[in-house]
């Protein structure tokens, strides 16, 4: 895919804004020739920033936003909102007088000799005025969509000197849900034994896993499950370990009686 730009505009505001202005001007002039998308005496085109990115895959969303803001602040573009639904915030774009001098209206006969793509009258079948991204195919005969063939992208990349792509910091951990087969690691078990020897590790682990598996939403994600386990253990209520003695029932009765009646239990049990 090839994109072009006006060098005079590029010298003033940068290469990327110039490329995007060329693209927008193409569609505005096309709509003007076809008498479509006329609002307030001007002809417009529309697209979301995500829609623009499908045309400019070598640009980030941040670069596209910067370029559009630059074109508007430097009075090359005028924006509007003519969507039918009040919650639809898709922006509409038209050329200002400053930009129009770089893009004179094409001659109608030349237009007929070299037909290019027409924007569909209905961008959205459910919306009579059309509110969606620009069409994916700029030329029906071109499967890859080439509305403005001129300069190779590799030449453009060499001149890009604004807004470097946003690169996420390396090594940054992302929160995740607890694995369905989660089990405490040897370190987790050792911590529990040292910090809370009163707890039954198996019961605490089952309770911990079931709780976090059942939890929904962003609160169910954690950066460090080992740290979450340690906090869980610290805050767990007292749980006496199960009695594992091999004492007989009679021994348990004798022990209980002594706890209740003290030294008098021997006399009571003998009578």
Structure description:
This protein has twelve helices and five strands. The protein has 271 residues and is mostly helical. It has three domains: 7-159, Winged helix-like DNA-binding domain superfamily/Winged helix DNA-binding domain (Arc Repressor Mutant, subunit A), CATH 1.10.10.10; 168-240, no CATH class; 247-271, no CATH class. A three-stranded antiparallel sheet has the order 3-5-4. The longest helix is centred in the N-terminal third of the chain and has 20 residues, at 15-34. The radius of gyration is 36 Å and the shape is rod-shaped. The chain starts with 6 loop residues before the first helix and ends with a helix.
Estimate nothing, just give the exact number of structural domains. 3
Number of DSSP helical runs: 12
Low-pLDDT residue intervals, each spanning 5 or more residues? 107-151
Question: Which CATH class of the largest domain?
Answer: Mainly Alpha
* Secondary-structure class: mainly alpha
What is the CATH T-level topology of the largest domain? Arc Repressor Mutant, subunit A
Query: CATH H level of the largest domain: which superfamily?
Result: Winged helix-like DNA-binding domain superfamily/Winged helix DNA-binding domain
Q: Order the strands across the largest sheet as they lie in space.
A: 3-5-4
Q: What is the second-level CATH architecture of the largest domain?
A: Orthogonal Bundle
Inertia-based shape = rod-shaped
Helix content: 40-55%
Q: What's the total count of β strands?
A: 5
Give the biggest beta sheet: 3 strands, antiparallel
